[in-house]
Write a structure and sequence with these properties.
By secondary structure, the protein is of the alpha/beta class. The protein is built from five helices and seven strands. The protein has helices spanning about 10-25, 35-45, 60-70, 90-95, 110-120, and strands at about 5-10, 30, 50-55, 55, 60, 80-85, 100-105. The strands form two sheets. Strands 2-1-3-6-7 form a five-stranded parallel sheet, with helices on both faces. The chain binds manganese (II) ion (MN).
Length: about 130
Amino acid sequence: MKHCILVVEDNQLNRELLRDWLEVEGYEVWPATDLQTSYDVFAKRIPDAVLLDINLGKDDGLDLLAWLREKPEMRDIPVIAVTAHALVAEQERILQAGCRACLSKPIDFHLLRAELSRWLQNPKTSQVRS
Ligand code: MN
């Protein structure tokens, strides 16, 4: 079975780029543009992983993370953050919030491939930051 990845990204070009790349890699992609459309996806089905843009315009991507972490059946879904901020402090904030990894834009697809295979293989027992 294909792993399903929720891609939350407000920029259409970035979203399509990620979707195309992930589909070639063999993943099924469920796109969302903001928090509400993400919640709509979760109401129907649970993804194996989330690729989360942090800056969603009016929304803060980390609010989705907080929402997930309150739900026992969803709290272990690996979330990989994507941010345009290269600042170490911002990356630390994102990892402290519970994202498993934080990738900078433009995305290094070798890194993304490595993170996805790492977290999808073993979503619970890989190193979890608390
Ligand atoms: Mn964005």
